[in-house]
Amino acid sequence: MGTTTDTAVRFFVGTDVGGTFTDLVVLEDNRPPRLFKAPTTPHDRSEGVVNALALAAASYDVSLREFCAAIAYFSHGTTAATNALIERKGTPTALLTTRGFTDTLLIQRSMTSWVGMGAATGHYSRRRNPAPIVPRDRIAGVTERIDSAGRELVALDEHEVRGLLRRLRDEGVRALAVSFLWSFLNAEHETAVGRIVAEEWPEAYVTLSHEVAPVLGEYERSATTVVNSYLGPVIRDYVAGLEGRLRSTGFTGDFSIMDSGGGVMRAADAARRAASMLTSGPAGGVLASAALARRLGHRNVITSDMGGTSFDVGLIVDSEPLVERVSEVGDLHLALPRIKVTAIGAGGGSIAWVDEAGVLAVGPESAGSVPGPACYGRGGDRPTVTDADVVLGVIDPERFLGGRMPLERALAEKAIRLHVADPLGLSVEEAAAGIRQVADNHMADLLRKVTVEQGYDPRDFTVYAYGGAGPTHAYAYTEAAGIATLVVPPTSTVHSAYGTVTSDRYRAVQTTDVQRTPPGAADPAEHLDPARINATLDELSLRCRADLDDDPRVRLSRIVYLKFRRQAHELPLTVPDGEVTTDVLRALIAEFRDAYERLYGAGTALLGAGVELHTLRVEGRVGVTGITEGGYEGSARAEESLIGSRPVYFPECGRVDASVYRGEGLGAGASLRGPAILEFAGTTVVVGPGQSLAVDPYNNLVIDCRGNA
Q1: Where does the record locate the signal sequence feature (predicted)?
Q2: How do residues 193-243 score in pLDDT, each as one tens digit?
Q3: What is the CA 439 to chain-centroid distance, rounded?
C-alpha cells in the first residue's frame, strides 16, 4: 500500500499472544492480509502487542499513532486466563455452597490425583492432589436447600449469609463464587445472595452458578463458578490495561476478545465471562481453519498449531469444529462448552533432554521467549527443537523472521553437544535429527489420538498446519500419521490472530429442561414434549438475540443434549431450523444412536434403556468486519522465486541439497517437488523428499505427503 495518512483507510487488526511470539494480522478492504510477529513480553504482554503494532505501522510508513487511529476494529486472543489458572495467580476467592456439600470441589468426582495429567496417569508416583484454588477454610456451607424438582426445602438463612460475608472480607477474600444445589432449576437463593453481596460488599467480584453454568453436575458447575470468580478480576485488569495502552496510542475503534466457545465477545464483557477465555488463542486458529475448510470443500480437517511452547490440535468434522461440553483445564473440569483443542508441550522452544534411563526426550518444558532457544543468543543454554532445525539446515539463521532476528548456529550446536550429543555418544547432527524425530513423532501420535478417540480414521482427514513452527514440521508429522494431504494457509504464521479478527461475535445461552423416556419404549420420541422444547428454545433464542443487540444479521443454531438413562455424559446434536415436532425428535434420537455407536462401537447404543434430554442450548453469531480481502501476488512459475539451494539433513534420508524458494514469491498455480525449503518472513515451510507442492487459487500451499509411502 505504501505511505498512507488517508483517514478513510480502515484497518481491522487481530492479535494473539503466545508463549514465545505475539502475532498480529492487519486486514483492509481489497488487499491481502499483512502479517507480523514480535517477541512476547512476559513482564507486560501489552508491550509485545504495541511492539507488533509498531512493526505494522512501519510497514505502512506511518507513525504508530497514525496507524492506531485508523484501526476500526481490534480483536485479541490471549493465554492470560490459562496462565493465571495454571500458575495459581488469581484473586483470593471464597465459595458459598449448600451446607453439607462443602467438599464437592475438593473431591472432584474421585479424579483429584490424576485429572489433567494425560499420559502421566499411569505413573502412580507422579499422581498428586492439585493445589486447590479455594482452600478448605474459604469454602462455606450455607443453610438452604432446593430439591431436584426446583422446590424449596429449606429457606435461605440471610442472616447467616451476611455474617459469612463479613468474615470472608476480613480474611482478605476479594471474589465470591456462589454455587447451590439445583440452582439451575430454581435460582431464587443464589439471586438473593447476589443481592445481599451488593448491599454488604459491593466491591466484591461475584459469580452465581446459574448465570455461568446452568447445568446438571454440582462439581463441574461449582468448579466453573469458582474459576470465573478466581480469574475475573485478573482478566478485568488485563483487558483494562491493554485497552488503556491501545487508547493511549490513538486507537478509538471497537475492541473484542476471543471466546473459547466459538467467536469473539466485547472486551467489556470479558471480565464477567473470564472462564470462557481459557482457550482463547487456539480457538481462533480452529475457527479460521473451519472457514477455510468450507471455502476449499474439506469436510474433515485436523488443525495443527505449532508455536514456540505447545502443539495444539483440533478437529473439524462435517465442516464444523468439534466442541466439548465439559472441558479439562489444568486440573479441573469446567461446564463450559468450548472448541476442543488438545495440546502437548511440543513447540519450537520445547527443551530436549536425556532422562535418567538415557533416553532422549523433548518437552514439555519450554524455553519460552525469555531466554528462548540457545540460538536466540539471549542467555538460553539448553537445546530446543528450533536449535535442532538450525543445526540441520532447515532454518537459515540469517533469514529468521525475515532477517529481523538473526540466530546463532554456534550456540545451538554447543547446547545440543553438551546436553544431548555427548551424553548419547552421537554427533551433533545425529542428535539434532533425533530431537526433530522425537518431536515429530509426538505430534503425529497426537494427530492419531484425537481422531481415533472420537471414532474417526485419521486417513480420512486433511491436515492444516500453522503457527510459527507448524509449517516447518508438518510435512513429517502428517506423513508419519498416514495422512495424504497437508495445507499451509497463506496466513499460517499468524493464523490464530487471523481467526480472532475474522470470527463472528458469539453468544451462547442454555438451560436445563429434564425430560425422560421410559425404558422399553417402542418409540422414545412419543414420550418427549415438543411444545415444551419449542417454548424453551424460543425463550433462549430471544435472550441470545438480545445479548447480540438484536442485530438482524444474527445467525442462530440450536443444540439439544441427549444421553441414555442413568448415564453421566451427554452428546450434543444440532436441532434443525423450524418447529420441533415428534418426527424431528425421532430423527434426533436416531442421530444420537449413530453418534453413540461411532464413539463406543457398533451395538453399544441400547435405546431400550430410555433416553434423557437434559440441556437445551442456543448459540448466536453475527459478522463483525464485513471486508473483502484482496488477492495475493506471486508468480505461477516457481523457478522465479528460487533463491538457490543448501544442504539440509532429513532424518529419513540424511543430508541432501534442498532447493530454497522465497515463499512470498510463489503465486497461484506454482508447483514444485521436494526436498525444498520455502522461506517466509514469519515461518519456514518444508517439503520433504519425494513430496510435491502446489499453490491453489487462494494461495494455500497444498502438499502431497505420500512421497515416501
Answers
A1: none
A2: 999 999 999 999 999 999 998 888 889 899 999 999 999 999 999 999 999
A3: 21
User: If residue 336 lies in a helix (H) or strand (E), which one and from where to where?
Assistant: none
> Rounded distance, CA 227 to CA 81, Å?
10
CA angle 518, 520, 524 (to 5 degrees): 60
Q: Does this model's pTM top 0.85?
A: yes
Q: What is the pLDDT of residue 110?
A: 60
Burial class (CB in 10 A: 0-12, 13-18, 19+), 100: exposed
User: Please, are residues 179 and 222 in contact by the beta-carbon 8 Å criterion?
Assistant: yes
Q: How confident is the model at residue 1 (pLDDT cuts 50, 70, 90)?
A: very low
The span from the CA of 478 to the CA of 470, in Å, is: 11
Q: What is the number of residues in the chain?
A: 709
Give pLDDT tens digits for 265-309: 999 898 899 988 887 778 899 999 999 999 999 999 999 999 888
CA distance 240 to 46: 10
Residue in 377, 314, 331, 322 with CA at minimum distance from that of residue 117: 331
Quote the cell numbers at residue 134.
Answer: 479455594
User: Could you give the C-alpha distances from 639 to 642, 660, 662, in angstroms and in order?
Assistant: 5, 10, 10
CB-CB contact of 164 with 142 (8 Å): yes
389, amino acid identity: D
Yes or no: say if 677 and 660 are a contact pair by the CB < 8 Å rule: yes
Identify the helix (H) or strand (E) that includes residue 189: helix 188-200
Alpha carbons 77 and 471: distance in angstroms, whole number:
21
The secondary structure element, H or E, covering residue 571 is: strand 571-575
The answer to whether 543 and 652 have CB atoms below 8 angstroms apart is no
Task: Round to the nearest angstrom and report the end-to-end CA distance of the chain.
Answer: 44
Say if residues 352 and 345 touch (Cβ distance below 8 Å): no
pLDDT at 124: 52
Residue identified by cell 480414521 is: 457
Name the strand (E) or helix (H) holding 653: none
97 alpha-carbon distance from chain centroid: 30
Q: Three-class SS string for 459-514? A: HHCEEEEECCCHHHHHHHHHHHCCCCEEEECCCHHHHHHHHHHHCCEEEEEEEEEE
Residue 492 to residue 37: CA distance in whole angstroms: 12
3-state class of 369 per DSSP? Answer: coil
Can you read off the three cell numbers belonging to residue 245? 495502552
Distance CA 92, CA 84 (A): 12
Residue 345 C-alpha cell reads as 508441550
Tell me the three cell numbers of residue 488: 499451509
Q: What count of other Cβ atoms lies within 10 Å of the Cβ of residue 345? A: 17
Residue 40 makes CB contacts below 8 A (sequence gap 6+) with: 17, 18, 19, 20, 21, 22, 48, 368, 369
CA–CA dist 523, 590 (Å, integer) = 11
What would the pLDDT profile of 592-623 be if each residue is shown by its tens digit? Answer: 999 888 888 888 888 888 898 888 999 999 98
Residues 6 or more apart whose Cβ sits within 8 Å of residue 344: 118, 310, 311, 363, 364, 442, 443, 446
Q: Can you tell me whether residue 307 is helix, strand or coil? A: coil
Spatial contact of 473 and 650, defined as CB atoms under 8 Å apart: no
Q: For strand 175-179 and strand 152-154, is the pairing parallel, antiparallel, or unpaired?
A: unpaired
State the DSSP code for 259.
E
